[in-house]
User: Fold these one by one.
Assistant:
Number 1:
Amino acid sequence: MFAPAYLDYNATTPVDARVLEAMLPWFSRRHGNASSRHEFGRAARAAIDEARTRVAAAVGASASEVVFTSGGTEASNLFIKGAAIARRTPDQRFPLIAISAVEHPSVRQPAAQLAKAGGRLREIAVDRDGRIARADFDAALAERPALISVMLANNETGVIQDVGALAECARPTRAWFHTDVVQALGKMPVDFRALSQCGVHALTLSSHKIGGPKGAGALVLDKRLELVPQIVGGGQERGLRSGTENVPAIVGFGAACALLAEQESAAVVRQADLREEVEIGVAELGAVIFGQAAKRLPNTVFFALPGVDGETLVAKLDRAGFAVASGSACSSADPEPSHVLMAMGVDPEVARGAVRVSVGRETTAKEVGDFLIALGETVFQLKRLATLAS
Ligand code: PLP
């Protein structure tokens, strides 16, 4: 059977077979509600506790700091909204929130919603390579935001921010500092203890980017912060996230985190080699690689070929059997050029050509080689059609 090559690991990853195996009993035989007092409930509670320990261990946190959610989006919403409500000004207005201009919509949208409801939002500029512009960061701090959110690694470009150093600078302002580590986890070290010593208070995690199931994630939260819960009801997750726990998904998330500890560093080096190959191949076709001068995740290449439309290229590659993303996967229904590239000062016409290749655990050198051949052929055809039409 024809098997397309999957080169879109930043959008989501396949569930690891060992993760699936760990999850299966919790759908059927072991179906208890973790709040029940009988044996079925106690077993579910113990499984959640074990998953909590595993997730905490993967990011150098303690289990009591992990709040399970339905994913990264909910975790960031909980932080941004829960903290903004908790830190309302004396006249009951939402406080100033500062976020980087390249945040994922799961941070941008709740911050924008609060701004519309009477709060204030300050975007922190990035440079041409997608790194936080330090002068603008300092200027934002001078405005005294109550909350700051800067992601550790960008989902589109893979650009890594020096979050520890930024949090250290922000510490004297007493802002609550959040970082989305959804894309960083599994691709680079993430250590909540070290980050919290620099002044970071919360991390957002998602299971489906690391070989776990969709529908599970966590907010890792400094317990000194008193967030106002956004989903209330039965009081699960220390009252911070009510709702009967999704035991199979939480167990799967924990199993995926445990596998990260076993992941050999060779696996990440192999991904970096494949990424390098993609970069050399696209550069030969004349591509611009976004964020190339910055420190980036080892698996991500975000590029554009001048004169080639990204959406068209992605559709043609899909037909040829290669799954890659145009712009951000999460906003591919949105025809606007990527806000990340706009913030980096990329020409909108160039940004419309943006294509993201992200490799992962199961990507092979053959897939990458075949992809580059298909890309070369597709670009040749598109350019020939454009010449004929002109
Ligand atoms: N943050 C980043 C950087 C992401 O890439 C994503 C998903 O694409 C999310 C947050 C949202 O996570 P989830 O899909 O678990 O809601």
Number 2:
Amino acid sequence: MAKKTIADVDPNGKVVLMRVDFNVPQDDSGAITDDRRIRMALPSIESVIQRGGKLILMSHLGRPKGKGPEPKYTLKPAAERLSQLLNKPVAFAADTVGPDAHAKVAALQPGGVVVLENVRFNAGEQEPEATYANALAAMADIYCNDAFGTCHRSDASMVAVPKAMGNKPKVSGFLVAKEIQYLSDTISQPKRPFVAILGGAKVSDKINVINNLLGICDQVLIGGAMADTFSLAQGGKVGGSRVELDKVELAKELLAKGGSKLVLPLDTHCGDAFSSDCNKQVVKAGQIPDGWEGYDIGPETAKKYAQLLKGAATVVWNGPMGVFEKPPFDEGTKIVAQAIAESDAISIIGGGDSAAAIEQLGFADQVTHVSTGGGASLSMLEGEKFEAVELLDNA
Ligand code: AMP
């Protein structure tokens, strides 16, 4: 069900409480090393301030203990970076529901912005007690969720706060709306053929994704170390490859369920040590000799997967095809990324490593959607419904 977005409400003169994901990476001195998450929230932020709204931004950063301020996790640097990006002053409140927050919110002019301190400094963010959520909700006329990376969680600022807003408007931001559009709506009514390509280290991380996608895709292509666990389930030899012995039975079940929809590698690029300069050889899948490990899909597999991807109308990709951090074992991932970039399909790249790979390779602007969420995008590909999204107003 489509949700109302921030574009559907009039923020003029109103106080908008927006949950954003400013959980940015920082170096040891606290300097922000990648401000992508702040930049991703700019369209929603600008939409409110350009229309004369008074904007309160709240976010978590890191994993503080919930027992008061911890300087390492302050959102002050994020507020300063936002001010630079907006090219206007942004206020910062040293608390979230305390006297400084109230004073700074009361002082907001139309078009003004205040960033509250880290919501996780307060125990109420992650423990079920209504006082904290009520105090946050009481400050605002409109609630907006633009924190996709946290949408699979039930923290107070994601769930209890919008609930505490009662009948006041509760809408999604543009980032959350876009993620739902692609990771949920497009996938549930895909243009066919719909091909998913899944890689990465562990079957255990992706079981629910494979299960869900086997139900809706025409083909699910498997790569990464995961493929070796499937190979073992088929009675293949995997040498010293990274496999999950306790997931072999599960792999057998997925093979039975998937039938010809589940496509496994034809060959494997192996090495005799976990480094770029090890000895290398390509072997048929399921024939990895002792003393060798599979580090990437082989060239025959890469070629086959690229052809299948080029013929698809919808593509979902999550997880690298091999140890892409150590060339030449990035070859399979590169070929797959290029095929997705060159295809005319609606292409959706799950967060985490595959998003990083497509960006590093320079293909990010040739795909339809690169998800900003790691855990959240996996959960959405599993078909999970998020309470934090469900409770927003329907369009
Ligand atoms: P994930 O977080 O599950 O998407 O896994 C990503 C990680 O899996 C990357 O760091 C890859 O280096 C690793 N990986 C992928 N294929 C293999 C492989 N065949 N052997 C060992 N590690 C792998």
